[in-house]
Amino acid sequence: MSVRDTAQRQYIKLLNRTAQQLHGLSAAREGWIARFRSALGISGPQLARRAGVTKAAIYQAERNEKEGAISLKQLEKLADAMGGRLVYAIVPKEGRIEDVVSEQAHRKAEAIIRRASAHMALEKQALTSKQLNEEITRLADELMRDPPPDFWDDR
Fold first, then answer.
1. Cβ atoms of residues 46 and 35 within 8 Å
2. Predicted pLDDT of residue 121
3. pLDDT tens across 38-76, in order?
4. What is the 3-state secondary structure (H, E, C) of 88-116?
5. Are 33 and 61 in contact (CB under 8 A)?
6. CB atoms within 10 A of CB 36
7. pTM for the complete prediction?
8. CATH number of the domain at 26-81, out of 1.10.10, 1.10.260, 1.25.40, 1.10.4100?
């Protein structure tokens, strides 16, 4: 086992654990700035003074956050002004890292097998639906064990 494989396994464990902890936690409809501010009982003008910005800047930041147009730097500054800290993570939408890899392997295998099957059909050697699915599963397993350099390419 290589150092790279060991590091990858550690990253997988870390991200799976993080994803599990964050499961069910979604962005607040009103945004995290407004949610945190409300929990503290701090007004927009009070936060503005603490952050060294105008109150209009606070309300604009809250709007930008809801629209997905706020910078991490600005979020971090406002979190700090409220005595909080920004936590930033990218985790799988659902499930675990292994599920994301498995899904990609399945897509890749299906594309390869279906392409080969089309050529075989032209030569009247088409696979049955069952054989096709078995081959896709077999190749997907192989791709997960030993991913090729183009594993994450869409084609």
1. no
2. 65
3. 999 999 999 999 999 999 999 999 999 999 999 999 999
4. CCCCCCCCCHHHHHHHHHHHHHHHHHHHH
5. yes
6. 17
7. 0.75
8. 1.10.260
